[in-house]
Design brief:
- By secondary structure, the protein is α+β, with helices and mostly antiparallel strands.
- A 3-stranded antiparallel sheet has the order 1-9-6, with no helix packed on it. Strands 2-3-8 form a 3-stranded mixed sheet. A 3-stranded antiparallel sheet has the order 4-5-7.
- The chain is elongated, with a radius of gyration of 37 Å.
- Strand 2 and strand 3 (105-107) form a beta hairpin.
- The protein has helices spanning 5-8, 16-63, 89-94, 114-121, 140-144, 153-172, 185-197; strands spanning 80-83, 98-100, 105-107, 128-129, 148-151, 177-179, 207-210, 212-213, 216-219.
- The structure holds 2-acetamido-2-deoxy-beta-D-glucopyranose (3 copies).
- One 2-acetamido-2-deoxy-beta-D-glucopyranose is lined by residues 131-133.
- InterPro entries: Phomopsin_biosynth_assoc.
- The chain crosses the membrane at residues 34-56.
C-alpha cells in the first residue's frame, strides 16, 4: 500500500498559514526556553545565596552567642612562644626575669621595656608603700621581694593610662615581644572600669598591689 503524501513529508507544513504559526510557535518556545533557563538560574542562585547566608550566620552565631565573646579566635598570641617567670621571686631570678615597677610584675627580659618604665616614672606618682596609709615608703629592692604593697590612687590611674599607651604602640607597631599584662583582656577590662569609676571614689584611697609573675609572648612571624 502506498503511504500518503503527508507520511512522506511528515514535517512539512500543510499550508502557508500553518507554516507561519509554526514559526511563531518556534520563537515562542525558544523564548520560553530562555525564560525557563533564566528562572532555573535565578532560583538556583537564590537557593545557594540562602544556603551560604545561613551557613555564615550559623558559624557567626557559634562564636558570638554571648555578646563580646572573643572565644578561641586567632589573636596576636596565636603561634607565639611563651616565656615565663615561674611562681616565686627565687624562681623569677633563676629564670633571669626582672621586676617591672610599671607592670607590678616580674617579666622575662625581652618584655622588660625600659622606655615605658621611664614614661611611667615621669608622672612622679609611682612610689610604693608598706602600709595602707602610704607612710612607709619602700625602695625598689624592697618592692620586688614582697607579696604586695600599697600605691596611691594617682599611681593606679597613671598605671592604667600608661598601659593603654603601651598597649596601643605594641599592637600598632606589631612588636615581636608582648608581655602577658598588655595582652590580658581581664587586666584591660579592670583598668577600663577603674578609670570609669575614678571620678566617684575617694582619691585618698590606696591601691593594694600584688607582686605578680608575668610571661612574655615571643611572636615567631607576624600574622602567620
Ligand atoms: C588567643 O589565642 C590563643 C591561641 O590561639 C588562645 O589559646 C587564646 O584563648 C586566645 N585568647 C583569647 C582571649 O581569645
Ligand atoms: C604556680 O603555682 C600554682 C599553685 O600555687 C600552680 O598551680 C602553677 O602550676 C604554678 N605555675 C608555674 C608556672 O609554676
Ligand atoms: C591610717 O590613718 C588613720 C587616720 O589617718 C588611722 O586611724 C589608722 O590607724 C592608720 N592605719 C594604719 C595601719 O596606720
Amino acid at each position: 500500500m502506498m503511504p500518503s503524501q503527508s507520511e512522506h513529508q511528515p514535517f512539512l507544513p500543510k499550508d502557508a498559514t500553518s507554516k507561519e504559526s509554526d514559526l511563531a510557535h518556534t520563537h515562542r518556545s525558544a523564548r520560553s526556553a530562555i525564560l525557563s533557563n533564566s528562572l532555573v538560574f535565578v532560583f538556583t542562585s537564590l537557593l545557594w545565596l540562602i544556603v551560604v547566608t545561613f551557613a555564615l550566620r550559623a558559624s557567626e552565631n557559634k562564636s558570638e552567642s554571648t555578646g563580646i565573646d572573643h572565644g578561641h579566635r586567632h589573636n596576636v598570641t596565636t603561634n607565639a612562644k611563651l616565656l615565663t617567670c615561674g611562681n616565686s621571686t627565687a624562681e623569677a631570678r633563676d629564670l633571669g626575669c626582672k621586676y617591672d615597677v610599671f607592670l607590678n610584675n616580674w617579666v622575662p627580659p625581652p618584655c622588660y621595656d625600659e622606655e615605658w618604665i621611664a614614661e611611667y616614672l615621669e608622672d612622679n606618682s609611682w612610689s610604693a608603700y608598706a602600709d595602707e596609709n602610704l607612710t612607709q615608703q619602700l625602695e625598689l629592692e624592697q618592692m620586688e621581694d614582697r607579696d604586695f604593697y600599697y600605691t596611691s590612687f594617682r599611681d593606679h590611674i597613671n598605671h592604667c593610662a600608661t598601659m593603654w599607651n603601651k598597649q596601643f604602640w605594641a599592637l600598632y607597631e606589631e612588636r615581636m615581644a608582648l608581655d602577658t599584662v598588655i595582652v590580658n583582656p581581664a587586666h584591660t577590662e579592670h583598668c577600663a572600669q577603674f578609670l570609669r569609676d575614678a571620678s566617684e571614689v575617694n582619691a585618698n584611697q590606696a591601691t593594694k598591689t600584688n607582686v605578680g609573675f608575668a610571661g612574655c609572648w615571643i611572636r615567631a612571624r607576624i600574622y602567620q
